[in-house]
Amino acid sequence: MAAVATKARALTSAVLARWPLPDAGESADKESRGHVLVVAGSHEMPGAALLAAVAALRTGAGKLTIAAPRRVAEGLALAIPEARVLGLAESRAGGFLQAGCKALRPVAPSVASVVLGPGMLDERRSAAFVRAVLPCFRNSLTVLDALAMSAAHGGPFDQPVVMTPHAGEMAHLSGLSKETINADPLRVAREAAARWNACVVLKGPTTYLALPDGTAWRFDGGTAGLATSGSGDTLAGLIGGLAARGAPPLQAAAWGVLLHAHAGHALRKRQGPLGYLARELSGEVPALMAQLARRDQPRTVRR
Predict the structure, then answer these.
(1) Model confidence over 118-148: pLDDT tens digits?
(2) What's the sign of the alpha-carbon dihedral 279, 284, 289, 295?
Protein backbone atom coordinates (compact mmCIF):
# COMPACT_ATOMS: atom_id res chain seq x y z
CA MET A 1 0.00 0.00 0.00
CA ALA A 2 3.10 2.23 -0.15
CA ALA A 3 1.99 3.94 -3.36
CA VAL A 4 -1.22 5.19 -1.74
CA ALA A 5 -1.44 8.73 -0.36
CA THR A 6 -1.42 8.82 3.44
CA LYS A 7 -4.41 11.13 3.69
CA ALA A 8 -7.89 10.57 2.33
CA ARG A 9 -9.17 12.98 -0.31
CA ALA A 10 -12.02 15.28 0.67
CA LEU A 11 -15.42 14.35 -0.74
CA THR A 12 -17.36 17.49 -1.69
CA SER A 13 -20.23 18.61 -3.90
CA ALA A 14 -17.72 19.98 -6.39
CA VAL A 15 -16.10 16.54 -6.66
CA LEU A 16 -19.42 14.87 -7.43
CA ALA A 17 -20.32 17.53 -9.99
CA ARG A 18 -17.21 16.43 -11.88
CA TRP A 19 -18.03 12.76 -11.34
CA PRO A 20 -21.46 12.44 -13.02
CA LEU A 21 -23.69 9.45 -12.48
CA PRO A 22 -24.46 7.15 -15.41
CA ASP A 23 -27.36 8.64 -17.34
CA ALA A 24 -29.55 6.46 -19.53
CA GLY A 25 -31.07 9.57 -21.15
CA GLU A 26 -34.47 11.23 -21.20
CA SER A 27 -36.01 8.51 -23.36
CA ALA A 28 -34.78 5.64 -21.15
CA ASP A 29 -37.29 3.11 -19.88
CA LYS A 30 -37.26 1.51 -16.44
CA GLU A 31 -35.24 -1.47 -17.64
CA SER A 32 -32.32 0.71 -18.69
CA ARG A 33 -32.24 2.54 -15.34
CA GLY A 34 -31.55 -0.64 -13.41
CA HIS A 35 -33.29 -3.20 -11.22
CA VAL A 36 -32.49 -3.14 -7.50
CA LEU A 37 -33.27 -5.98 -5.09
CA VAL A 38 -33.65 -5.16 -1.39
CA VAL A 39 -33.40 -8.19 0.92
CA ALA A 40 -34.21 -6.86 4.34
CA GLY A 41 -36.55 -6.58 7.28
CA SER A 42 -37.93 -8.72 10.07
CA HIS A 43 -41.06 -8.91 12.18
CA GLU A 44 -39.41 -6.51 14.65
CA MET A 45 -38.06 -4.10 12.03
CA PRO A 46 -40.14 -4.23 8.84
CA GLY A 47 -39.60 -0.50 8.41
CA ALA A 48 -35.91 -1.04 7.66
CA ALA A 49 -36.82 -2.75 4.40
CA LEU A 50 -39.27 0.03 3.57
CA LEU A 51 -36.70 2.78 4.18
CA ALA A 52 -34.00 1.09 2.08
CA ALA A 53 -36.41 0.28 -0.73
CA VAL A 54 -37.90 3.77 -1.03
CA ALA A 55 -34.42 5.30 -0.93
CA ALA A 56 -33.33 3.08 -3.82
CA LEU A 57 -36.23 4.27 -5.96
CA ARG A 58 -35.59 7.93 -5.07
CA THR A 59 -32.16 7.71 -6.71
CA GLY A 60 -33.80 7.02 -10.06
CA ALA A 61 -33.47 3.23 -10.21
CA GLY A 62 -36.01 1.83 -12.65
CA LYS A 63 -37.30 -1.33 -10.94
CA LEU A 64 -37.58 -2.51 -7.36
CA THR A 65 -38.00 -5.97 -5.87
CA ILE A 66 -38.16 -6.52 -2.12
CA ALA A 67 -37.50 -9.87 -0.47
CA ALA A 68 -38.62 -9.96 3.14
CA PRO A 69 -39.62 -12.55 5.75
CA ARG A 70 -43.03 -14.00 4.98
CA ARG A 71 -44.78 -12.56 8.01
CA VAL A 72 -44.03 -8.96 6.92
CA ALA A 73 -44.02 -9.32 3.13
CA GLU A 74 -47.71 -8.56 2.64
CA GLY A 75 -47.52 -5.40 4.71
CA LEU A 76 -44.54 -4.18 2.72
CA ALA A 77 -46.34 -4.88 -0.55
CA LEU A 78 -49.18 -2.64 0.58
CA ALA A 79 -46.83 0.07 1.89
CA ILE A 80 -44.73 0.20 -1.31
CA PRO A 81 -47.04 -0.38 -4.29
CA GLU A 82 -44.16 0.34 -6.69
CA ALA A 83 -42.38 -2.88 -5.64
CA ARG A 84 -42.63 -6.55 -6.39
CA VAL A 85 -42.45 -8.28 -3.00
CA LEU A 86 -41.28 -11.82 -2.30
CA GLY A 87 -41.91 -13.57 1.02
CA LEU A 88 -38.95 -15.69 2.13
CA ALA A 89 -38.60 -18.52 4.65
CA GLU A 90 -37.61 -17.35 8.12
CA SER A 91 -36.47 -18.80 11.41
CA ARG A 92 -38.53 -18.59 14.60
CA ALA A 93 -36.27 -15.75 15.69
CA GLY A 94 -37.04 -13.86 12.49
CA GLY A 95 -33.86 -14.51 10.53
CA PHE A 96 -33.65 -15.45 6.86
CA LEU A 97 -33.19 -19.16 6.15
CA GLN A 98 -31.02 -20.56 3.38
CA ALA A 99 -34.14 -22.11 1.86
CA GLY A 100 -35.11 -18.58 0.81
CA CYS A 101 -32.32 -18.56 -1.78
CA LYS A 102 -34.51 -20.64 -4.09
CA ALA A 103 -37.02 -17.77 -4.46
CA LEU A 104 -34.26 -15.31 -5.40
CA ARG A 105 -32.51 -17.30 -8.12
CA PRO A 106 -35.12 -16.54 -10.83
CA VAL A 107 -34.74 -12.76 -10.39
CA ALA A 108 -30.93 -12.79 -10.22
CA PRO A 109 -30.23 -12.41 -13.96
CA SER A 110 -32.15 -9.12 -14.16
CA VAL A 111 -30.81 -7.52 -10.96
CA ALA A 112 -28.13 -4.81 -11.23
CA SER A 113 -27.67 -4.28 -7.49
CA VAL A 114 -28.65 -5.90 -4.20
CA VAL A 115 -29.10 -4.35 -0.76
CA LEU A 116 -28.74 -7.01 1.94
CA GLY A 117 -29.20 -6.60 5.66
CA PRO A 118 -31.28 -3.66 6.93
CA GLY A 119 -33.50 -4.83 9.78
CA MET A 120 -32.29 -8.44 9.78
CA LEU A 121 -32.47 -10.54 12.95
CA ASP A 122 -30.88 -13.85 14.01
CA GLU A 123 -27.29 -13.12 13.06
CA ARG A 124 -26.10 -16.72 12.72
CA ARG A 125 -28.83 -17.83 10.34
CA SER A 126 -28.97 -14.54 8.43
CA ALA A 127 -25.18 -14.58 7.87
CA ALA A 128 -25.42 -18.13 6.56
CA PHE A 129 -28.24 -17.01 4.26
CA VAL A 130 -26.15 -14.10 2.94
CA ARG A 131 -23.16 -16.35 2.23
CA ALA A 132 -25.46 -18.75 0.38
CA VAL A 133 -27.18 -16.07 -1.68
CA LEU A 134 -24.14 -14.02 -2.71
CA PRO A 135 -23.03 -16.44 -5.48
CA CYS A 136 -26.40 -15.90 -7.20
CA PHE A 137 -25.52 -12.22 -7.67
CA ARG A 138 -21.90 -12.31 -8.84
CA ASN A 139 -22.80 -9.94 -11.68
CA SER A 140 -24.52 -7.44 -9.38
CA LEU A 141 -23.07 -4.89 -6.99
CA THR A 142 -24.09 -5.91 -3.46
CA VAL A 143 -24.46 -3.51 -0.52
CA LEU A 144 -24.06 -5.26 2.82
CA ASP A 145 -25.54 -3.48 5.82
CA ALA A 146 -26.24 -4.38 9.45
CA LEU A 147 -26.22 -8.14 10.22
CA ALA A 148 -25.54 -9.06 6.59
CA MET A 149 -22.00 -7.77 7.06
CA SER A 150 -21.31 -10.76 9.30
CA ALA A 151 -20.84 -12.71 6.07
CA ALA A 152 -17.39 -11.09 5.99
CA HIS A 153 -16.29 -13.60 8.63
CA GLY A 154 -16.24 -16.13 5.77
CA GLY A 155 -13.22 -14.40 4.21
CA PRO A 156 -12.66 -11.89 1.40
CA PHE A 157 -15.39 -11.39 -1.18
CA ASP A 158 -14.82 -12.38 -4.79
CA GLN A 159 -17.50 -10.09 -6.24
CA PRO A 160 -18.31 -6.34 -6.04
CA VAL A 161 -19.36 -5.49 -2.47
CA VAL A 162 -19.92 -2.28 -0.50
CA MET A 163 -20.01 -2.55 3.30
CA THR A 164 -21.51 0.19 5.49
CA PRO A 165 -20.44 -0.28 9.14
CA HIS A 166 -20.48 2.30 11.90
CA ALA A 167 -17.80 2.06 14.59
CA GLY A 168 -19.78 -0.38 16.73
CA GLU A 169 -20.41 -2.71 13.81
CA MET A 170 -16.77 -2.46 12.73
CA ALA A 171 -15.73 -3.43 16.26
CA HIS A 172 -17.95 -6.50 16.06
CA LEU A 173 -16.60 -7.47 12.64
CA SER A 174 -12.92 -6.76 13.23
CA GLY A 175 -12.43 -7.57 16.89
CA LEU A 176 -11.02 -4.09 17.50
CA SER A 177 -12.35 -1.87 20.25
CA LYS A 178 -14.48 1.16 19.37
CA GLU A 179 -11.80 3.32 20.96
CA THR A 180 -9.16 1.91 18.60
CA ILE A 181 -11.43 2.44 15.60
CA ASN A 182 -12.31 6.00 16.55
CA ALA A 183 -8.64 6.82 17.16
CA ASP A 184 -7.66 6.04 13.54
CA PRO A 185 -10.75 5.37 11.40
CA LEU A 186 -8.93 5.89 8.11
CA ARG A 187 -6.42 3.16 8.85
CA VAL A 188 -9.18 0.82 10.02
CA ALA A 189 -11.27 1.46 6.90
CA ARG A 190 -8.31 0.82 4.60
CA GLU A 191 -7.32 -2.36 6.39
CA ALA A 192 -10.91 -3.63 6.36
CA ALA A 193 -11.27 -2.89 2.65
CA ALA A 194 -8.09 -4.85 1.90
CA ARG A 195 -9.01 -7.73 4.22
CA TRP A 196 -12.50 -8.19 2.82
CA ASN A 197 -11.85 -7.07 -0.77
CA ALA A 198 -14.72 -4.60 -0.53
CA CYS A 199 -15.49 -0.92 -0.71
CA VAL A 200 -15.87 0.02 2.96
CA VAL A 201 -17.93 3.00 4.13
CA LEU A 202 -16.99 3.55 7.78
CA LYS A 203 -19.72 5.84 9.07
CA GLY A 204 -19.21 8.42 11.78
CA PRO A 205 -18.85 12.19 12.43
CA THR A 206 -16.33 11.94 9.59
CA THR A 207 -17.16 9.13 7.18
CA TYR A 208 -14.34 7.31 5.41
CA LEU A 209 -14.65 5.44 2.12
CA ALA A 210 -11.88 3.00 1.24
CA LEU A 211 -11.07 0.56 -1.56
CA PRO A 212 -8.88 -2.56 -1.32
CA ASP A 213 -6.01 -0.79 -3.10
CA GLY A 214 -5.91 1.89 -0.37
CA THR A 215 -7.75 4.61 -2.28
CA ALA A 216 -9.69 6.60 0.30
CA TRP A 217 -12.04 9.57 0.60
CA ARG A 218 -13.38 11.35 3.65
CA PHE A 219 -16.62 13.24 4.15
CA ASP A 220 -16.83 15.80 6.96
CA GLY A 221 -20.20 17.38 6.23
CA GLY A 222 -22.68 15.39 8.27
CA THR A 223 -25.23 16.69 10.73
CA ALA A 224 -26.24 15.43 14.17
CA GLY A 225 -29.83 14.81 13.11
CA LEU A 226 -28.71 11.96 10.85
CA ALA A 227 -27.89 9.92 13.94
CA THR A 228 -31.43 8.56 14.17
CA SER A 229 -33.21 5.24 13.76
CA GLY A 230 -33.42 4.14 10.15
CA SER A 231 -30.85 6.59 8.81
CA GLY A 232 -28.37 3.83 7.97
CA ASP A 233 -31.07 1.81 6.21
CA THR A 234 -31.77 4.83 4.03
CA LEU A 235 -28.08 5.24 3.18
CA ALA A 236 -27.79 1.58 2.19
CA GLY A 237 -30.79 1.99 -0.11
CA LEU A 238 -29.33 5.11 -1.71
CA ILE A 239 -26.07 3.33 -2.49
CA GLY A 240 -27.95 0.34 -3.89
CA GLY A 241 -30.15 2.50 -6.10
CA LEU A 242 -27.17 4.40 -7.49
CA ALA A 243 -25.41 1.11 -8.18
CA ALA A 244 -28.48 -0.15 -10.04
CA ARG A 245 -28.13 2.86 -12.34
CA GLY A 246 -24.62 1.69 -13.22
CA ALA A 247 -22.38 3.50 -10.73
CA PRO A 248 -19.34 1.42 -9.67
CA PRO A 249 -18.81 0.74 -5.94
CA LEU A 250 -16.82 3.83 -4.95
CA GLN A 251 -18.97 6.24 -6.96
CA ALA A 252 -22.23 4.75 -5.66
CA ALA A 253 -20.90 5.00 -2.09
CA ALA A 254 -19.60 8.55 -2.53
CA TRP A 255 -22.81 9.87 -4.06
CA GLY A 256 -24.88 7.99 -1.49
CA VAL A 257 -22.96 9.43 1.47
CA LEU A 258 -23.13 13.00 0.20
CA LEU A 259 -26.80 12.85 -0.85
CA HIS A 260 -27.70 11.36 2.53
CA ALA A 261 -25.91 14.18 4.36
CA HIS A 262 -27.29 16.94 2.13
CA ALA A 263 -30.81 15.59 2.67
CA GLY A 264 -30.18 15.91 6.40
CA HIS A 265 -29.02 19.51 5.98
CA ALA A 266 -32.11 20.35 3.91
CA LEU A 267 -34.38 18.98 6.63
CA ARG A 268 -32.33 20.69 9.34
CA LYS A 269 -32.85 24.03 7.61
CA ARG A 270 -36.64 23.61 7.57
CA GLN A 271 -37.27 21.66 10.78
CA GLY A 272 -34.34 22.22 13.12
CA PRO A 273 -31.14 20.33 13.95
CA LEU A 274 -32.80 17.31 15.60
CA GLY A 275 -36.08 15.46 15.27
CA TYR A 276 -36.48 14.98 11.53
CA LEU A 277 -37.10 11.37 10.55
CA ALA A 278 -35.18 8.91 8.42
CA ARG A 279 -38.31 8.39 6.33
CA GLU A 280 -38.12 12.07 5.29
CA LEU A 281 -34.58 11.90 3.89
CA SER A 282 -35.36 10.11 0.63
CA GLY A 283 -37.85 12.72 -0.52
CA GLU A 284 -35.06 15.29 -0.67
CA VAL A 285 -32.84 13.19 -2.94
CA PRO A 286 -34.21 13.76 -6.48
CA ALA A 287 -33.88 17.55 -6.25
CA LEU A 288 -30.44 17.26 -4.67
CA MET A 289 -29.21 15.00 -7.47
CA ALA A 290 -30.44 17.52 -10.03
CA GLN A 291 -28.71 20.38 -8.20
CA LEU A 292 -25.40 18.52 -8.05
CA ALA A 293 -25.61 17.63 -11.73
CA ARG A 294 -26.01 21.32 -12.63
CA ARG A 295 -23.05 22.59 -10.60
CA ASP A 296 -20.40 22.07 -13.23
CA GLN A 297 -19.68 20.66 -16.64
CA PRO A 298 -19.02 16.93 -16.20
CA ARG A 299 -15.43 15.75 -16.37
CA THR A 300 -13.81 12.62 -15.08
CA VAL A 301 -12.58 12.56 -11.48
CA ARG A 302 -9.14 11.05 -10.93
CA ARG A 303 -9.41 8.17 -8.48
Answers:
(1) 999 999 999 999 999 999 999 999 999 999 9
(2) negative
pLDDT in tens, 206-225: 999 999 999 999 999 889 99
**Total number of domains in the chain:** 1
Edge-to-edge strands, sheet with 9-10: 9-10, 216-219, 207-210, 199-202, 161-163, 141-144, 113-116, 35-39, 63-69, 84-88
Tell me whether residue 219 is in a domain. no
pLDDT class for 5, splitting at 50, 70, 90? low
Residue 33, in any domain of the structure:
yes
Dist. CA 60–CA 147, nearest whole Å: 26
Helix (H, G, I), strand (E, B) or coil at 39: strand
Distance of CA 285 to the CA centre of its chain: 15
**Phi/psi-derived region of residue 119, left when phi > 0, alpha when psi is between -120 and 50, beta in every other case:** left
Q: Determine the residue type at 140.
A: S
* Distance (Å) of CA 134 to CA 112, 130, 137: 13, 6, 5
For residue 301, what pLDDT band results from cuts at 50, 70 and 90? low
Q: Does residue 115 sit within a domain?
A: yes
| Residue 273 belongs to domain with CATH number | 3.40.1190.20
How many angstroms from the chain centroid is the CA of residue 6?
26
**Domain carrying residue 205:** 28-209+225-294
Report d(CA 148, CA 2) in Å as an integer.
32
Burial annotation 82-98 (CB, 10 A radius, 16+ → b, else e): ebebbbbbbbeebbbbe
